[in-house]
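Predict the holo structure. Ligand: zinc ion.
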Amino acid sequence: MTFNGMALADYHIHPDYSIDATGTIEEYCAMALEKNLVEICFTTHYDSNPRGSEGERVMRVDGKAMPLSPETVKRYYDEVRAAQEKYFPLGLEVKCGIEVGYWQGCEEPIAALFRKFPFDYKLVAIHDIDDICICCSSRYEACFSRFVVTEMADKYFSLVKHAAQSQLFDCLAHLDVYKKYGLRYYGNEILTVHRGRIESVLETMAENNLGLEINTAALRRGHSEYYPSMEIVNLARQAGVRIAAIGSDAHKPEEVAFDFEVAAGVAYELFPYCDE
Ligand SMILES: [Zn+2]
Ligand SMILES: [Zn+2]
């Protein structure tokens, strides 16, 4: 799989260390080779919000949900590093990243985590508003029922600003992920709620060198555009926010590089200075 002869990389992949994913690191690497990718970056979930819901704050190790700890992270980290040893000679670069769910107050424990594990790529995601998951099918209503759409957006974007200002991360995952379930909950207003709100958020991202990703998973959720929408991608370009990567947010091996021919067009044609 290439775009205009350029080799492609998928920088958002969940192996089965993520509790909501299937497929071993081996299986993902084999799939990436099959799809002719030159590089993949694993980004398992690290949702450590102490005020979050029951069932979060876990990582799957040896088929069992284990509490997040340096030991569980080490198992993941070491297995990805071993995969790089095995697959690099076969033509696939395997990077070790992580997707941190942001919560206010996470700065110190996450900085400590990053001192212990020198990840190649640090993604940050806003998964929770008021400590309730907005991306989980079983919980988003409990969160959205507290707010009208504009209040929800203000809360979400404020968290993005805090995440940017922490300067701990390379890239923000799925920038307008509030639309995942927000479209069915709030209706079409969700698609324009960023107007007049996101501009200052993008400035904060640019100032703090937090990039964004083109995340193709939205298409698998019945949306007509990626995370984020083209309108937001264009606003980001105006604000000088870089596109750090393209990611499929694969939760099973067959989703690797999902819709990447089109996504690469978006990234490369609009952002000739894109570094991936
Ligand atoms: Zn996410
Ligand atoms: Zn993800």
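The chain has ten helices and 13 strands. The chain has one domain: 2-270.
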